[in-house]
Amino acid sequence: MRRERQQGWIAARGRPLRGELTVPGDKSVSHRAIMLASLADGASRIEGFLEGEDARATEAIFRQLGVRIETPAPGVRVVHGVGLDGLQPSTQPLDCGNAGTAMRLLSGLLAGQGFDSVLVGDASLSQRPMRRVTEPLARMGARIETGADGRPPLMIHANKDLQAVEFNSKIASAQVKSALLLAGLYANGETVVREPQPTRDYSERMLAAFGWPVVFSPGIARLSGGHRLRATDVSVPADFSSAAFFLVAASLVPGSELCLRRVGMNPRRTGLLRVLRAMGADIVEAHADEQGGEPVADLRVRHAPLRGIAVPREHVADMIDEFPVLFVAAACAEGVTTVSGASELRVKESDRIATVAGGLRTLGVRVDETPDGAVIHGGRLRGGAVGSHGDHRVAMAFAVAAQCAADAVTIGDVANVATSFPGFDTLARSAGFGLEAVET
Ligand code: S3P
User: Based on the domain organization, do 194 and 260 belong to the same domain?
Assistant: First the structure.
């Protein structure tokens, strides 16, 4: 049987990693900036917008819903907001591509509109659970049908009469929290969301920046319907999750010293920094500043030998997107690293416990999986062929692993790296990675 050729990489040890790098804009912030600017009164300018497929999918959806969005330069958007009730129905399904954030946040935002919408996604997104948003939204009166087993597509029916709820979430998920808050903009009364662990608070911070009264502290957020969003300019910081690949790679490769410029340092995102430091990493913050209401800093990372640790559970939500590369750091560290309390990894763009553990085993690492984590036995990596399972962060994590492997690592199916980190391969090569594009 003929198989379609896929974009892949051959990655191998390169040079020590050196220089100054700026990674692209934050994905979570880019999605939210387009959404809130679209619903605001007036024009908002977004700078540092992530030119990745996920954020562009959200942008294309709002164009489809009648919002005029200009691109005066790469990474810049001017969004002509239509006001809270100004979106127009689309006759076509709204395609979220690979973006779980787009689909889950839009399910809340569209639930209180006066028109129906259909949300669809790519093969990976179509396998991801949506009841975590549709069930609490139904309590607000939202009428959303899902595909089989609570998966996409989502058929959202018009409802101009949502009622606020108090929701105690069992899952630590910023997407669930944000879906309810966005529905809450359209609801009668006060919407309250409590979380089992605090998650990223970009929706809350950005709603406040757009002038919506919102009260929040780690683990709780509340807002009432009936206000307006005022256009404002947004400056998107560099994505900590993209910087993470370089933090780990430079820690692992002897002789490395990299400076990552103006990285977003929201504490709900920087759990990996705390864990890498506990493993012995040499990462120094400098030039702490604020950008668009978010803390940013330059991060200087030098090679340092890493030791395995038990990852404290309280850091898990603050590093939820960094586990693929943390597994790689653990595989190259001395001793054993234990991860637990991270069952959410099983429902990301791939089952990240299974996909990363499987690939690391191919490279000769002993990894024992558990339902909510893994035990990773640090050692030497050999070469081999691994799959990314269409998961951008898994692909990039294995490119990092290859910088420490004895022989070349072939990584299949890397096209989805463009969802979060367009230009990763070029930037990585310029820093010293051994990395070539191939067809696999
Ligand atoms: C995100 C929240 C997280 C994260 C995702 C982006 C967001 O998902 O994994 O990459 O922008 O709100 P969960 O809410 O499912 O944990």
Answer: no
Question: Are residue 417 and residue 309 in the same domain, yes or no?
Answer: yes
Q: Last residue of a domain, which of 198, 216, 235?
A: 235
To test ligand 1's pocket by mutation, which of 36, 58, 98, 173 has the most ligand atoms within 8 angstroms of CB? 173
What integer pLDDT is reported at residue 4 of this predicted model? 67
Q: Are residues 119 and 267 in the same domain?
A: no
What is the separation of C-alpha 170 from the centre of its chain, rounded to a whole number of angstroms?
20
Tokens of 199: 């998650």
Residues lining ligand 1, Cβ inside 6 A: 28, 101, 173-175, 178, 200, 320-321, 344
Nearest CA to ligand 1 atom 13: 173
pLDDT band with cut points at 50, 70 and 90 for residue 440: confident
155 and 284 share a domain? no
Nearest to 142 by CA among 112, 119, 120: 112
Number of structural domains (the chain) is 2
The Å distance, Cα 350 to ligand 1 centre, comes to 13
Is the pTM value of this prediction over 0.85?
Answer: yes
166 forms beta bridges with: 192
User: Does residue 13 sit in the same domain as residue 75?
Assistant: no
Judged against a pLDDT cut of 70, whether residue 27 lies above it is answered with: yes
Q: Is residue 2 part of a domain?
A: no
pLDDT score recorded for residue 6:
84
182: CATH: 3.65.10.10
Q: What is the pLDDT of residue 31?
A: 98
Looking at 235, 263, 295, the residue that finishes a domain is 235
Cβ(408)–Cβ(14) below 8 Å: no
Give the pLDDT mean for 246-255: 98
% of the chain at pLDDT higher than 70: 99
**CA distance linking residue 342 with residue 311, whole number of Å:** 10
DSSP 316: S
Catalytic residues: 321
How many whole angstroms from 172 Cα to the centroid of ligand 1?
9
DSSP string, 326-345: HHHHHHHSBSEEEE-S-GGG
Residue 229 in any domain: the answer is yes
The token pair at 187 is 């609801």
Asked if residue 421 and residue 341 are part of one domain, the reply reads yes
What is the domain range of residue 361? 7-25+237-439
Question: What order of strands is seen across the sheet that includes strand 76-82?
Answer: 68-73, 76-82, 41-47, 234-235
